[in-house]
Structures are given as structure tokens and as C-alpha cells.
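ok trying again, last paste got cut off:
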Amino acid sequence: MEIINNSFIIGEMEDPKLLHNKINKDQDDETLMEACKEFEALFLSMMFKEMKKTVPEGDLVEKGLGTRIFEDLYVEEISNEVAKQDAGLGIADMMYQQFKKGYVSW
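nice, full thing came through this time. structure:
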């Protein structure tokens, strides 16, 4: 159990539902942020794949199915890593704030 401050612990003893609501709110916030980061990773993956299509391919070596699968997995992993960083591109943070302030309902 994480101790927030003394007044919260005293209030918890008076009303056990207070702690339950606090824990649920924290879990909901974490779940919302995780969903926003997953959306940012998906967005980045789609963007990187479209960017990759603009690069001309060389005729020196023909790409097989395995190479294309590897490249797609690589792009997805890069997208996930960028989204996991503290700020990422900032899309996840902007979405999180909009959901929290009630501009968007879910």
C-alpha cells in the first residue's frame, strides 16, 4: 500500500470506500495512459510504413517475404520504443489530457 499523506490514512480509517475509490482512480488513470501510448505507437507505425513506401528500392538485391516481414516487425518495434519514451511525440499526453478534462468521452 502506498502512503499518500497522513490525512488520507486517517480518512481511510473512517471510510474504507475512500481508499478503494483512490486505487480504482489510479488504476483507471494508468490504464488510460497505457491506451493512449498504444494509440501513439499504432499511429507512428502507420506513419513510418507510409514514409518507407516513398523510399525507392534498389534493384541490386531482390527482397523476399522474410525480409519484408522483418522490416515490418522492425518498424513496429521502433514505433513502440518511441511511444514508450517519456514524451514520445506528445500525442499520448495530449490525448490523455483531453480525456481527463472531459473534452472527449469514452
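cool. The mean pLDDT is 80. The first helix runs from residue 6 to 14.
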